[in-house]
Amino acid sequence: MEQSSLYVVATPIGNLADITLRALDVLKRCDVIAAEDTRNALHLLKHHGIDTRVISLHEHNERTAAYKLVDLLAQGKSIALITDAGTPAISDPGALAVCAVREAGYPVVPIPGANAAICALSAAGITAPHFLFYGFLPQQAAARKRELEALKASPYLLVFYEAPHRVAASIAAMAEVLGDRTVTIARELTKLFETMHRCALGEAAAWFEADANQLKGEFVLLVEGAPTAAAPDAVALTHVLEVLMRELSLKQAVKLATELTGARKNDVYELALALGKGA
Ligand code: SAM
User: Fold this and answer.
1) What pLDDT, on the 0 to 100 scale, is given for residue 40?
2) Statement to judge: residues 257 and 187 lie in one domain
3) Exposed (0-12), middle (13-18) or buried (19+): which is 116, by Cβ within 10 Å?
4) Could you tell me the residue range of the domain that residue 133 belongs to?
5) Can you tell me the distance from the alpha carbon of 174 to that of 225, in angstroms, rounded to the nearest whole number?
6) Does the beta carbon of 87 sit less than 6 angstroms from any atom of ligand 1?
7) What is the number of domains present in the chain?
8) How confident is the model at residue 87 (pLDDT cuts 50, 70, 90)?
9) How far is the CA of 217 from the centre of ligand 1 (A)?
10) DSSP assignment, residue 13?
11) Under 8 Å between Cβ of 228 and 202
12) What does the alpha-carbon distance between residue 185 and residue 269 come to, in Å, rounded to a whole number?
């Protein structure tokens, strides 16, 4: 353990065993643990036989708590920062405190571990190569709709966090704004009632109605990105153009090939010119 350092420590998102050896070591050996909810922290610490002193750092006191952390670091103390679940500063408090500590010139050391979004993505079997992590949508309906409108054109898989009392309304808003895309509902990950269900956004309400228990717990929602026009296969496009150009003028062939393949007109035109020249 380095003196005067802030360790940002990921804790479990459900199963208390999902914590790294390094995280346990830091929590055991640091001077102070700054925790989002001290009762939650004590539950975790007790489970792992750790009795380090705990102070509070949450959304509503983060600015003043950050000064306190800097003060403790100035006294040479080492501090671990934890939140109720997963990785601090990810849809959680932590970023303000880390910023204050960095500005004061003290080292900040990440101790990686659980994160609900990554946990859901790892087991969802979604082959999309990219995703956009959004976190919580606004609670208010109009603001939520505005945000979804802004996300609508994104080709990337959208990753949302949601609370049980808002999940149905959020999914309904997604269906309305984004259209009937596929959603993977990842619920209660690493816990007793862990569930992963994939359906169309428009079918989710019926799934929840069929078993109200599915509305309980914590949710990650993985929503398909906007459909992108697939680039037509170059070989197929060339073949279509060659056939059409045997019977039609270049202009007519380009028009029809564009319609048939969905390729960009300029690309089809250039290919037609090249074919016409015997390229
Ligand atoms: N910092 C955390 C992380 O690294 O994932 C996220 C904290 S955020 C305040 C809490 C939200 O994360 C929940 O409302 C839920 O959307 C998601 N979440 C946390 N634990 C989860 C779990 N076990 N299963 C599904 N979602 C979970």
Assistant:
1) 97
2) no
3) buried
4) 117-223
5) 12
6) yes
7) 3
8) very high
9) 10
10) S
11) no
12) 44
